[in-house]
Amino acid sequence: MVTTTTTTTTTMMLMRKMFVLMMMLMMMVMSVGKAFPDKTSIKELLKDFQTIDVRASSGDSNILCKDDKLDIAFIIDTSRSIHAHEYDQQIEFVMKLVSIFNISPQNIRVAAISFGQEVVRDSAFGFSTHKTKEKVLAGIKGIVYRGRDMGDQTETGTAIAFARKNVFSNTRPGVKRICVVLTDGRSTDPLQTKQEASYARKDGIKMIAVGIGNNVSMEELKAIASNGQLVFKIDSYELLPQFERHVMTQTCESK
Fold it and tell me: Where would one find the signal peptide in this protein (predicted)?
């Protein structure tokens, strides 16, 4: 049944793409001997084409995660080096990832914490806190920007340790455990970060590292992640949407 639904959906997406391309060609043909077609119209068509492609990608990821049983925790950087609008883009990115999950106490459960010079405990929530997708999304949206109050330190290792000891202590037997770490720079204590990530991996937690911006250390991201495929280096917050599908896929396929 799933295979049939997937094939039908993919066919419809391809037909819509072909229609958009045909419309673009018609506009160009009709413009022969006249002014070149309006740039705004072409941009709108291209935008529609890209939107269809994103929908197809999201659909594939949704099917991929549909029947999984996962406990996924997000560790979100809210240090002073991140501007408020960049933090909002980071939160939106996490919410987009969460929106594809089949969230329930029996299937996928989500937890989230934020950190800067310390873990922000008052907005953190564990796997048992929110039992529906709507409440999880509201919980993530409620993790507000604390950059100005976070000092100059980025205690990534402390955040990983907190998640391992306080969040992943409430996981279900036999269920895959995944931790997604998002950060914009080098941690204050790289050795601690490396050690805490190692402890988490030894506890059976799959670690995914997402580094954003020019100050990220690839060496540190590799030290956090369980393997090279789970390392993502993104040049800016504006580019986060382009990596949604890749991070979704690796999260869903983590074994």
Answer: 1-35
* Superfamily holding 70-252: von Willebrand factor, type A domain (3.40.50.410)
Q: How far apart are CA 227 and CA 214, in angstroms?
A: 22
Q: Determine the Cα–Cα distance for residues 173 and 255; give it in Å rounded to an integer.
A: 15
pLDDT (average), residues 208-233:
92
Question: Which contiguous run of DSSP H or E holds residue 91?
Answer: helix 84-99
Q: What residue ranges do the domains of the chain occupy? A: 7-48, 70-252
- Please count the other Cβ atoms lying within 10 Å of the Cβ belonging to residue 61: 21
Tokens of 165: 């000891």
Can you give the pTM of this predicted structure?
A: 0.74
Q: Are 237 and 213 in contact (CB under 8 A)?
A: yes
* pLDDT(53) > 80: no
Alpha-carbon torsion, ordered 115, 117, 122, 125, to 10 deg: 30
What DSSP designation does 37 have? P
CA dist., res. 231 & res. 209, Å (int): 5
